[in-house]
Amino acid sequence: MARGQKDYAGSSQKTVGATLSDMGELAARLGSIVTFDRRGDIILLDDFEDPLMKWNLSGEALGFAGRLDQTGAKTGSQCLKITSPADTDKNVAANRRIDYVGAPRLGQEVSFSRLSSVGYIENRMDVFTGSRKVEFRLKYDQDAGTLSYYDVDGAWQVLASGLTLAVASFYYWTWKLVGDATEEKYARALLGSREHDLSSIAAKASDDTTEASVLVFITSASVNAEARSVLYDHYILTMNEP
Predict the structure, then answer these.
(1) Exposure string over 200-210, b if 16+ CB within 10 A, otherwise e
(2) pLDDT of 172-205, one tens digit each?
(3) Domains in the chain and their CATH numbers?
């Protein structure tokens, strides 16, 4: 029997302090990056503290860049810094492919900090089931002040407007996108304190025999033909989302 606890219960009254029974809270207190939206089971965590950057880079024009950065991490000593090309409305994307185990609802959460204005940033998951490709995409357009989702016809639809996200050193916003690959529908989207129910919205889907996997992207775009950098930290991919 563990000392300090009764043999018939997981907790007991203390004179000073309190017993902690929430394992998620315990993990957070011990340094886990899962502190924003704690729903879902973890598939992948990346706090970008390893010396090797485990993400691929792609861009719509020459001049994009990406590296681990030690100047503005949300926590720890490093984050991911990606820089868009110095070309009008051209983007840079960090992407990574992960095995897909068939869990229907997936969630992608990441925190971002902008050192200056950007054209837009995007949160994207392409889910390949082995026979279908389902696209879940969420975009924040800074100039328009809008949050939009990518609809079943491949067009952007405004979800929220009038948004102004602060730009400041060490100021991170967190957003999360959840989609159901089995139903081929969105589930919900979170940006800071705002949560949007997307459960009635169909995602863009097509026949595709690519091996079952999830291709995830975190993207940012240039503005006024000038290169722009965004810092990313606390990347979390989940499954079995409620």
Answers:
(1) ebebbbeeeee
(2) 999 999 999 999 999 999 999 999 999 999 999 9
(3) 40-239 (2.60.120.200)
Residue 11 and residue 20: Cα distance in Å, rounded? 8
In three state form, how does the secondary structure of the chain look? Answer: CCCCCCCCCCCCCCCCCCCCCCHHHHHHHCCCCCCCCCCCEEEEEECCCCCCCCCEEEECCCCCEEEEECCCCCCCCCEEEEECCCCCCCEEEEEEEEECCCCCEEEEEEEEEECCCCCEEEEEEEEECCCEEEEEEEEEECCCCEEEEECCCCCEEEEECCCCCCCCCCCCEEEEEEEECCCCEEEEEEECCEEEECCCCECEEEECCCCCEEEEEEEEECECCECCEEEEEEEEEEECCC
pLDDT, tens only, 76-127: 999 999 999 988 888 999 999 999 988 889 999 999 998 677 889 999 999 9
Q: pTM of the full predicted structure? A: 0.89
Whether 157 contacts 165, CB under 8 Å: no
